[in-house]
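Quick one - inputs below.
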Amino acid sequence: MTFLEKLRGAARANDSLVCVGLDVDPARLPRHLADGPDPAFRFNRAIIDATKDLVCAYKPNFAFYGAMGGRGWEALVRTVEHVPEGIPVILDAKVGDIGNTAERYARMAYGEVGADAVTVNPYMGFDAVEPFLACPDRCAFLVCLSSNPGSADLQRLRVDGVPLYRIVAEKAVAWNRRGPCGLVVGATHASDLKEVRGVAPGLPILIPGVGAQGGDLQTVARCGADADGELTVVNVSRSVLYASGGEDFAQAARRETERLRADLNRYRKDGV
Amino acid sequence: MTFLEKLRGAARANDSLVCVGLDVDPARLPRHLADGPDPAFRFNRAIIDATKDLVCAYKPNFAFYGAMGGRGWEALVRTVEHVPEGIPVILDAKVGDIGNTAERYARMAYGEVGADAVTVNPYMGFDAVEPFLACPDRCAFLVCLSSNPGSADLQRLRVDGVPLYRIVAEKAVAWNRRGPCGLVVGATHASDLKEVRGVAPGLPILIPGVGAQGGDLQTVARCGADADGELTVVNVSRSVLYASGGEDFAQAARRETERLRADLNRYRKDGV
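Output:
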């Protein structure tokens, strides 16, 4: 089964474009979890159990686990293992390095962590991406245009009139012939998202930046989805994970995920 | 003590521009090490013990540890702990993510791993770099121009006639006013290295790509060093680590490091 088939399968089974970003921050864990063993994993397990019929993917960001050291590594691996078989896991690590090193990252992401896909920084070019394309059942999501203010520093610079992020999107389409590629595009600007979807009509687009970062659901659903209203992975982290800081955090996360799923579905169905 | 003071101190004490890249690959470990506990750490420990009076820095690349899973994490932390106090450690992880996530990577690199510096991918712009600049005794080395063929895909594109890697070098000079920045520039093209050194006369430049990747020592020493023949960190990994695959690997690594140090010193002293 290809990554796209797995993603489509989960999105259809759960009728959802929502991806929950498992960015667990020890400082924000509910108090009652903090005292036991492996609180980060127990938190994630409860979030997954409460949302697994509502999402199309999960996306742990490696930084949050790396910042916890060896315990973080273990929490990450246990978390990925806990995700139900049919739901893809995207490891958000924005890796990018020369060929023999990129091959090690592919082994880390796909082998040790057990992710179905990984985010890759395209700045070092094709041979830094190629090792992630070698597995037909995985996917490399190239960082194209991010939702932060710094996206203006390089991503929006123009090369012969064409913004760099668009060049990245064009490269992803070309490289997708070598192995499965996707794109990461921030949720903050409708016209940019529309432009990238136009360049890459058949690639999955991972969209961070809704929720805490302020991106708008209507934009995301209308401009990000493909012609069938699919292939969009809308990531929310903080607004779901920390919907409540109390013992009811998992139920609160479920309610917030349900709300996002319903809103996205309304807009994507209107929009198609 | 700032990172630059620490780097200069080690470089002067050991009269060396050589950085040994601790990119340990389980498949290439000498056989006699493979059977005991934590072979990656024992390998690194022997390499460090054999070269610590010959180098200006050590640079473990995170990919090699991540590919070993939890054991790799432990080997990395133990390795960094084993580096003598006065020698800086650059964690090569080419991280880059939005602000709150970058802050987690800074905590990982500087806190959990205990590195003095970290390599950062600049594609996401200033706020993705800023958290790494918050510590005056650390340093963020921005990936500017890499030594792989893929560097042509984005890094060499021209914005109003100026190649993107030069824009990154200019940004590093500007951002260095906010906190310590360095640059990563591949060893493969003399003129590029000269150009970047011209743009950033006072920044440390980390130069991978000599040894197994074929960069030339004379170019590196003459074009990379600052006006005093310093602030250049010339990384070699495979040609030192695997100079011998036998029980004499550490002595062979020492001999190769000595040779590189002598060559670089001859060229930089000629060149100044």
